[in-house]
Amino acid sequence: MLGRVKTRLARTIGDIAALRFHRETAARLIRALQRDRRWRVMLALSPRGALRHRAIPGRALRRVDQGQGDLGRRMARALRLAGGPAVLIGTDIPDLSPAIVAEAFRALRSHDVVLGPAEDGGYWLVGANNPADARFDGVRWSTRHALADTQATLKYRRVALLAPLADIDTPQDYRRWRSRSR
């Protein structure tokens, strides 16, 4: 997976540091979520060969291939495979916790879709009662417009927004995270 994860971040901090960050945050999050009995954890991985990768924790977890296409197509596929209600999260959110995931599931009791906004204009979580309710057509991924574009496709759905969290995409994000985690 060296050179395949956190590629925007890796351009400035290097492939090894980006991979280390990815492994640390993903492993911590997967372990924490797997211990919680309120849900089942499924890993949607890319590329297909990652399904067998030893460095990914949680051998007993269901692992699925993200499939082909842009991020929106791959997210829609993961939600369909999970069924509903389902919550899809990123693994580059150091402040994400089981309590926040539980909050997302609670929001789905009275909403069709839930989104977790990122501070950069994107989002770190999307959840839906019915996978068909989560639409991602025309989203400008990896831009400050991703959340607004997604909200525009959901105009006829009841959408809940969680509190914003920081994801780690830029060198500045990474430095802030490193200084907090020491």
Q: What's the short story on this structure?
A:
With 182 residues, the chain is an alpha/beta fold.
Please describe what this structure looks like.
This protein has six helices and six strands. Strands 3-5-4-6 form a four-stranded mixed beta sheet, with helices on both faces. Strands 1-2 form a two-stranded parallel sheet. The model has no long low-confidence stretch (mean pLDDT 87). By secondary structure, the chain is α/β, with parallel strands linked by helices. The chain has one domain (7-181): Spore Coat Polysaccharide Biosynthesis Protein SpsA, Chain A, CATH 3.90.550. The chain is globular, with a radius of gyration of 16 Å.
Which features would summarize this protein structure in a list?
182 residues, alpha/beta, Spore Coat Polysaccharide Biosynthesis Protein SpsA, Chain A, two-stranded parallel sheet, 6 helices, globular
Strand order within the widest sheet? 3-5-4-6
Number of helices: 6
The radius of gyration is 16 Å
Mean pLDDT figure: 87
CATH superfamily assignment? Spore Coat Polysaccharide Biosynthesis Protein SpsA, Chain A
| Biggest sheet details | 4 strands, mixed
* Helix content range: 25-40%
Q: In sequence order, what are the helices and strands, one letter per element?
A: HHEEHEHEEHEH
In CATH's first tier, which class applies?
Alpha Beta
CATH topology: Spore Coat Polysaccharide Biosynthesis Protein SpsA, Chain A
- CATH architect. name: Alpha-Beta Complex
End-to-end CA span: 25 Å
- Beta-strand share of residues: 5-15%
* Overall strand count: 6
User: What spatial form do the alpha-carbon principal axes imply?
Assistant: globular
Question: How many domain regions?
Answer: 1
> Unreliable stretches, pLDDT < 50, 5 or more residues?
none
Would you tell me the structural class of the helices and strands? alpha/beta
